[in-house]
């Protein structure tokens, strides 16, 4: 269904979600924010990234590691990019500039679907679940905030290894699943 949205609806929805995120204390306090480049009809994070840069925040994009976990590399519109093994663009910057997941303040995650208790269905690779698996045994690390269209709210199956989100922002509302969103 998200693929069938018109470009106008997708852009308007992304701007509405950016307005909602801009009001969250977790966004205001965040200095290091990870996001993604929209693919296959995902909610476009570009308006949120513009807001982050205007506020002097550093934006990071995921880089896939051989063990199928992720690290995060700094990103601006001028950052050179290279394709990973799946053909997804990643920042082409030295490893010395990468951050580990725990070093981020806020992670904006893509998703295929989400439910009303905080579980997400991704594209099936398990990259976010592996990267944030440490959250099962302790606290700390960034706030995990899904970005989605309202039409992506559906019951989703979840397993023991799935890492729930702290919240989801759509074009219509903020879903809060943990106290991290206030």
In words, what does this structure look like?
- By secondary structure, the protein is of the alpha/beta class.
- It has a single domain (2-100, 120-150, 167-176), classed as Rossmann fold.
- Helix content is 19%, strand content 22%.
- The chain is built from 4 helices and 11 strands; from the N terminus they run ααβαβββββββαβββ.
- It has helices at residues 7-22, 25-29, 46-54, 127-131; strands at 32-34, 58-64, 70-74, 81-83, 89-91, 106-109, 113-114, 120-121, 143-147, 167-169, 174-176.
- The strands form 3 sheets. It has a 7-stranded mixed sheet.
- Helix 3 links the parallel strand 1 (32-34) and strand 2 (58-64).
- Helix 1 runs parallel beside helix 3.
- The longest helix has 16 residues, at 7-22.
- The chain is globular and about 40 Å long.
Structure in a nutshell:
This protein is an alpha/beta fold and 182 residues long. It has helices spanning 7-22, 25-29, 46-54, 127-131, and strands at 32-34, 58-64, 70-74, 81-83, 89-91, 106-109, 113-114, 120-121, 143-147, 167-169, 174-176. Strand 1 (32-34), helix 3 and strand 2 (58-64) form a beta-alpha-beta unit.
């Amino acid at each position: 269904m998200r693929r069938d949205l018109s470009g106008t609806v997708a852009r308007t929805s992304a701007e509405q979600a950016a307005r909602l995120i801009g009001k969250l204390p977790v966004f205001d306090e965040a200095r290091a924010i990870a996001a993604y480049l929209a693919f296959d009809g995902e909610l476009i994070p570009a308006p949120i990234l513009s807001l982050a840069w205007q506020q002097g925040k550093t934006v990071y994009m995921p880089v896939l590691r051989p063990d199928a976990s992720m690290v995060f590399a700094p990103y601006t519109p001028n950052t050179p990019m290279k394709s990973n093994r799946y053909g997804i663009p990643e920042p082409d910057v030295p490893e010395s500039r990468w951050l580990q997941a725990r070093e981020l303040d806020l992670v904006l995650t893509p998703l295929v679907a989400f439910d009303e208790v905080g579980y997400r269905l991704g594209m099936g690779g398990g990259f976010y679940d592996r990267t944030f698996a440490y959250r099962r045994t302790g606290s700390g690390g960034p706030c995990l905030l899904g970005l989605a269209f309202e039409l992506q709210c559906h019951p989703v199956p979840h397993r023991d290894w799935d890492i729930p989100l702290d919240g989801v922002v759509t074009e219509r509302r903020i879903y809060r699943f943990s106290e991290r969103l206030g």
